[in-house]
Amino acid sequence: MAQTLLAIVLVLLAGHAVPELARWRDYSWLRGWAAQWMGEGGGKTSRYRAVLLPLLLVLVCLLLQALLGQVLFGLPAFAFATIVLFFAWGPGDLEADMQSVLKAPDSDRRHAAAQALRPDPAGEPLPLEPVALVEAVFASALSRWFGVLFWFVLLGPGGALGYRAVQLLARRSGFREGFDADHLEVLERTARILDWVPAHLIAFTLALVSDFDAVMSTWRHYHADHGKGYFTLDLGFLGALARAGVDADVEAGDGYAQDVADPLTELADARTVLHRVLIAWLVVIALPALILVGR
CB-based contacts of 158: which residues, under 8 Å, 6+ apart? Predict the structure, then answer.
């Protein structure tokens, strides 16, 4: 667990110190592999064929990790895990994208910069409004940060790369060539399954680092209003909880401003809250290592 934490910290530091490195996160190879993979089926293929490619990536990474772990005290395995995690983080740099919106000199460039916060770049234009910005930032943080972080901790580099591959194949238009409606349905369902635990962990952490009562009350009301219960793949609750937590923070003056109608104030506080959530996750990941050191 200590090596896992160190790899995460190194990736975060590299992204902060050298943000230009984000341009190396190029997944054009995955687009080509996916097209070839689906084309090899010839005609109608199994609806589950699309998810076999990410599964293959996971298995290959697990095998490489096991082999490299036997060499030079595991240092090559650690380097491999760190590189894969950095590659799977993103795409792009969410921190830089938020900063671009906050620092834009005028409304036109601010609106243009905000489009990078969309979970799906091919989706509808993102309006420069508090609700839309907060929901988009948290949805992007789930797929860019916390989802990949969760699966990296659970399965190592294979989990991180497999998660990223599913997200791209399911939700990025440029990766969908060769997929029919059945393939896309399975990919989207798989993406939601992979997001389910991280989304709930974000929700619980959000309650701890912002306004607990506001977040938990919103969580209960969301599920009561939608009538689907807690154990479904409806992850829309995350946007509602994000708005509740950020609004409560802003109204409490935690960001030295109390205007919940100001999109920049809401975005700035959403970034602060996300940092708190990330730090809380890192603390939890560090606990096993600290306990072992204490012994």
Answer: 57, 58, 59, 60, 61, 62, 65
